[in-house]
Every structure is written in C-alpha cells, then in structure tokens.
Amino acid sequence: MKKLIIVTLLMLPAMLLLAQRDKEIPAFGKVEPAELQMKECDIDKEADAMVLVDYGDITYQKGTLSLFAMKKEIRRRIKLFRESSFDLANIKLYYISDDRYEKVLDLDAYTYNLDANGKVVATKVEKKNIFKQKADASHSSITFTFPDIKPGTIIEYQYTVIRETSDHIDPWIFQDRIPTRISSFRIAIPEYFQFTTSKHISLPVEAKQDEYRGSVSNASGSLEYKNQEFTYKMRNIPGLKFEPYMGAAGDYLQRVEFQLAQIIYPDHSVKDFRNTWPRLATSLMESDYFGAQIKKNIPKGDELTKQLAKAATPTDKLFAIFRYVQQYMEWNGVNDFYCESVKDCWSKRSGSSGDINFILLNLLKDAGIESYPILSSTRTHGQVFSAYPFLKQFNKLLVFAQIGNKPYILDATDKYNPPGLIPHDVIGTEAFLVDKDNPGFVTLWDGLSQNKQYVIMNALVSEQDSLSGEVSLTSFDYAKNPRIRSLKQSKEKFISSYLTANQSNLHVQDLEVVNDEVDSLPLEQKFKFSQPVSSSGDYKFVNLNLFTGLEKNPFVQDLRQTNIDFGCNQYYMLVGNINIPEGYTFEDPPKNMTMIMPDTSIIFKRVLQVNGNTLGYRIILEFKRPVYAAEEYDAFKEFYKKLFTRLNEQIVFKKKA
Question: CA-CA distance, 366 to 28, in Å (whole number)?
C-alpha cells in the first residue's frame, strides 16, 4: 500500500475515568423545535452557523485482514443561521481506499425544518444523491448536498468507518471555523495496543477514563482482553475565524492526537513502533515509493541533453535541469512525498509534487550534483516539531542541492519560482533532509530574500484637479513571483490586482513589463496613471501611498487568536516628485519623521522637501522579521495603526490668496 504509517511515542497523561457512551449527546434524528427556532448563536451572535453536536466514537472489533479492525463512528449536527453558511450543506468525506484500507458504511443524512404548524419535518438525503469517486491514487471521496436548505435549517449526518488495521488513530479536533456547542470523543483501546496522547488544548476540557472487558475470536479460540476507555468533552468552543496572515489553522485548533507506541499480544514478542528520525529516514529510503524512486535512469531527451552540453559549470547544469523540469512537467495540484513510478510520470509529463521533484532529484544526481530529498510542511499545512519523528507532519517533497557552499531549495512544481529563491510556501519552516547516512533538519531561510518593492513616481496636478504621471515599479524576490503569475493570466487582471486595487478612481495605461522571462532579475513595471484629486473648499489633497499594496490596514480587529505570519521580511521604498500648478502653495507638509517598533523589527522613515511648486519625497518601510506572536498583537496593532496613519497622511495644497 502506498501510504506509510510511521508513528512514535509521546507522554501519556493520567486521566479520570468514565465507562459508557455520552448520554448528554442527543440521539440521531432527535431534534427539538426549540433548536430550529433559534435565531442566533448563543456563543457568538455574529456567527453564520454553529455546530450543535460533534461526536466521535472509536472501538475495536474482529478484523478480516488481521485480528483487530478499528471502527470509527462519526456524527455531526449543524445549525445554519444565514445564507452565507449554506456552503456547509455541501459535504465531502475522504477515506483511504488504497488496498481497501478503509470502508465507509451506514451513511445517513437528514435536513430538518419546521412546517407551518411548528412541527419538525425531516428530509432524507437519498442514496442516489450520494456520490463516490476516486480522489487520487490512495484516496476516494463521498460527496452529497443537503436538500431544502434555508436560514434556520439544521443538517445532520452520521457514518461509520472500518479501518482494517489497528495501528493508527486520527486526531480528534474539537474546534471548527464556526462555534461548537458540544464536542465529545470516546475511544476504547484493547490493552494490547499501547497508545500515547498529545493534547493541544487551551480551553476547558473534561477528560475521563475507565476499563471494561472485551473479547474477540479467531481460529485459535476466544481471546479476552481489557479495554482502556478514554472520553474527552468540550463545550461552547468559539470558532477559529480566518485572520489576515494567520498561517496554518491546524496549528491553533483545539485537538487531541494519538500515536502508537507498542503492540503486545500474549505469548508474542513486543512490536515496537517508537521511532527516531534516523529510523524514519532508513524506512523511507528502503520504500518502493520513496528511496527506490531516486535510483531510476530517466532518459533526458535531445533538448535537455543539448542544454546540458552548453552548461559550463555545475551551477549552470543545476539551473538547466531545474528550468527544464519546471517547464516540461505539469503539476496536478497534489502535494505529497511519494511516487509510484518516476518513469511513468516523466512520459506523461504530469504528476504530484512528489512525482515531479523525484524526477528533478534523479536528473540532478545523474548530472553529478549533490542533492537529497527533503520533507517539508507548507506554512498552510502546519508547524513541524523536530522533537517528534512523525511523518504526518509533512505534506510536500522538495529537493536540497548543494554546489560548493551554496545550498538550493528546489520545487519544480512552481513555474515562476527561480532556482535561487526558497519557495514562498515553505520559507521560514523546518524541513527534514532524508539520507541514510546523515539525516537531519534544514531551516528553509537565508535571511536575504524579501518581499521588496521600489516605487518611483513623477506626477503633476493639472488645473482640472487630476493627478497624473509616470511610475517605475520594481519588484524583487517574493514580490515578483505572484505578479508574474498574474501577468501570465492577463494584463487586465494584473492591473486590477496590483496597481489599482482599493483605488476605484485610479486609471493605468501604457503598461510595459521587463524581465518577466528572466528569473535572475527583478520585475520592472513602467506605466502612466491618472487619478482625480480630492478637495474640500479651497484645499486639495494628494496621497503619496500608491502602488504599494499597503493602502489598507488589515489588522483592525480588537483580538487575535493566531500568530501573524508574513512569510518573509519586507522592504518598501517610495521615491518621487509631485508638482502642483502655478498659483498654488503647499500647506504645512507632513513632518520628516522616523517611527520604530520597540523591538526595532519595523522601521518607518519619511523625508519630504518642498521647493517652490514641487514636493520631493522619500519613504522607506522595512520589516526585519516575518512572524509576530498572538501575544504581541496589542502592541503590534497599535504600532500598525500609527504606521498606516503616517503612510496615508495627505499632502495638502491650496490656491494662493
């Protein structure tokens, strides 16, 4: 089976005990009229929906492929308050279908509404409207949509998963993006399986434990054993809402995770699942879907052979191979770190991140370039904890190559990322370099690459109260790549996304782009623009903060649950001149100033100079670190408020008396 399961040991906390199913959870289908009459969420008045019941129950039963199989029962009941929550009525359930690893049974789903007489009416989701399909090589999905949805509706579904193995338990996640009234999870583990738990919980939780007897029969007779039962319950859980620059939501969700340590059957030797990073690296390198895929002889083809013949240095070879794979292969949108056959993917010219980067790795090694596979976790997937050798912490394969003392972090699935720039979706994260002899962690950070922008503007104000002029905008590193991606789609989309966003009365014309095909140079954008000048009585106003993408402050909420993660450091420089008509004069221009965050991580400098009818300016904004903890938010928010006040401070001028 393609999916590897490699787990390890954490500390198991002592718990209080409970030995029966949760009686507080209402029965499936038992919906009270009062629930349907609810007009708003009592946890969060502004919530569009809420989870009324989230229940999970895991037990072990006799297996068909082994002694034990895992049975997982899931039930969810959701209240929809507004039309904006109707997307919650579209359900997609994923399961591992490779080698019949999992089966989904007994799916039942209903919509509940009140009729004119206040009676609860249940509408069943018919089997003909439930669809199964293959999602990828290992997974399948079940999709369905609840009928008769309207504000006030309650939807409910339940299903059972039979997993023909007993060595893996999915984490139970108590929290959702909407509030949850009650989330309850019970698990009963036979004494032969030594699981450990890791709780990521900051809200109140009830944890109870009990024991009871069980038995299972096989060809040798009946085997009696003791079950260890654990129950966790949380109530009135606030929703984890989207916040600007929040990183991976999974890092903040209230959850409990399980890892298998040992299996100890009577009269059998102990089967130890405790892991180390070296053991994990060895397992991967011995896998048919990982290590074996690095030793393939991929035919280069005439074009790549021709390009390599022209390469004068190892760096030239690396760049030639990377750019060829980058343009030749098409990414299917799937991030993973396995490959069934690099040769098949090479001939098909498409594949997952694992497929494409294994191809890149083979070609680099064949060219004599020192290179290794590295397991990474994208910033939206979650943080990696190097103390725990868990494979599930990662979701993407990259390539680490080194020429002399210069390292390269390569991802050939991104057609716009140059070979010398760490991919933006993993920058600042920890990655695991997989090598039998010398495995270890690599920090994906160089301290040099930034989201860097220069805006040079020369403009004048006409007698007709129009500001117009020419702009030269230069985008470096992480500011460049998304702009090229947008440009490839259309110039109109690029202009609306990066030049006129948040400026409905700003018009851009004669756009000229340079270096969009040269990944070693910054992207130059030259264009003309015009914009009406706002006025009040005798006074007219001009804003210098144009074309930066910093026109609107994203950090205005009072509280924040998650860290602020910009991904990389940032640098902005605005330089230019504003000319006003004869007969006008500048009215007390803003003062020259420097504003610095207390820890010096953000610096804002502004220098203005008036010479007759011309105002020259130079504004610099620099971010020296990319991440700010949620605990720093109050100070960060206050500084950002002042920063945007200064950035958007108006230049005022009026007609001379």
Answer: 60
Question: 336: which residues sit within 8 A by CB, 6+ positions away?
Answer: 352, 353, 354, 395, 396, 397
CA distance 320 to 304: 8
Assign 214 a pLDDT band (cuts: 50, 70, 90): confident
Question: Can you tell me the distance from the alpha carbon of 508 to that of 492, in angstroms, rounded to the nearest whole number?
Answer: 10
Burial of 619 (0-12, 13-18, 19+ CB in 10 A): buried
497 contacts: CB under 8 Å, gap ≥ 6: 486
615, burial (CB in 10 Å: exposed 0-12, middle 13-18, buried 19+) = buried
| Residue 322 CA: distances (Å) to CA of 365, 410, 425, 523 | 12, 8, 18, 21
Lowest mean pLDDT among 8-12, 92-96, 135-139, 360-364: 8-12
CB 625 within 8 A of CB 643: no
Question: Which strand ranges, in their side-by-side order, compose the sheet holding 523-532?
Answer: 507-514, 523-532, 466-477, 450-461, 569-579, 614-623, 602-611, 593-596
Helix 301-310, helix 314-328: angle, nearest 10: 150
Can you tell me the distance from the alpha carbon of 146 to that of 228, in angstroms, rounded to the nearest whole number?
37
pLDDT tens readout for residues 523-539: 999 999 999 999 888 89
